[in-house]
Amino acid sequence: MSIRPQLDLFGADAQPELFDENAAPVEYRGDPDRVRARLARIIDEARAADVLPWDAARARLYRRIVPQMTLWLPEEEAAQLNFAFEREMERLARAA
Question: What does the domain layout of the chain look like in residue ranges?
Fold first, then answer.
């Protein structure tokens, strides 16, 4: 059985870069291929349904995140995917 060393709670700051005011901000870049795949799954699930396939909370979530997800894609492709999603949501709303 090995003994792990105890952390020095009162010693020198082991992670000063966490609080460095001059540190560059972390920037996340969405992977367009993963975004496309996720959007395709959402839209395909809606197209395959005769009634809304999600509960109200999930439908609200998708209405909020689909436009945000498309921001990682080229403008024309984003517009097409947003249109396809909204068209399916409208169709499913009429079916309710």
Answer: 31-95
